[in-house]
């Protein structure tokens, strides 16, 4: 009995960590690198770089929030292109007053309006960071911090502890800071190498289990060979907002200020049976001899949220033969060697990379042309529909398999085929006679 109880406890202890593993992006993480670039009279100056190595999970508006706990009694004298949300009690300091005296500072990025001569590389984007797979050039955010009342050498510096990252909501878990080989820099002429005086890394991973107890999106299906539509499951994203939703054609939906976001990012959803902020619809549209065609539509039901730099990931065995994507950008994802069944769709820049809030403009759509593999292609048993769908890095809830659109009775299909063959044969005999 004791051993069974021990196994149960171990399972629940390991569950959150296991949920942080994403099988479609097994190496995805956010790495926060601290480079000590100079020593000061009572501490050091560090360049802090946040790199998003996740393939399809961006940090969207209102951006990242980074926190930690000092190991001793450190203070932040100054910051460049970032700021703490609170200063704290700095009354014991005479003359120069630190930027922040809190034992647990919380840092945010600056807005884009910072004067150009005061900017730092990869800064001032309001905390918005692209996914590595979508736009590597925008997947980095950085700032500089001057730390006082701290160590002044590699042996006396104490690493910060208990890092936290909001991106912008919950979901990220950060490991301890670890000293790594010092970062090497190249001068502008690429003829000289310099290096940081000391470097440590912090790795943060995302878990949908920790981010929310319910899914944030759902998927519906339809096809040309069946008139029925398979909707999202009822209360797919939970029905906790059912009493505070907006009917699409009501006066409230057109009320001034309804699209104003709240500081806590609380959603205001359109009333639906699934009560999800996002619905992805996968429609099997056409069937050709060597190709087949799918239409994908993404609809936003949240009146308070614009999705910038959105991403949509689908897993389907025929995504290894995508021929053309008409209105989205597309990139294959190969998380495991030789298994090419996953792809990422995202908006074209300045065209549909912004998914508007709920309303007439709150949707984006595209069609995808795929080449058939005659050895595996079929419309039977729901093969034409995706195995997994992710929106902005969160897995969407799919309908149950028994609810998928089904093919018409095969006997009817065969009878039509046979009758067609008979008519063709008689026509051929008539012509040659």
UniProtKB/TrEMBL annotation:
Keywords of this entry: Glycoprotein, GPI-anchor, Lipoprotein, Membrane, Signal, Transmembrane, Transmembrane helix
InterPro entries membership: COB_C, COBRA_pln
Compartments in which it is found: Cell membrane
Residues annotated as domain COBRA C-terminal: 216-405
Entry annotated with the keyword Cell membrane: no
GO cellular component: plasma membrane; side of membrane
Signal peptide, first to last residue: 1-20
Record-level GO BP terms: cellulose microfibril organization; plant-type cell wall cellulose biosynthetic process
Membrane topology: Lipid-anchor; GPI-anchor
Transmembrane spans: 413-432
Similarity field: Belongs to the COBRA family.
Protein name: COBRA-like protein
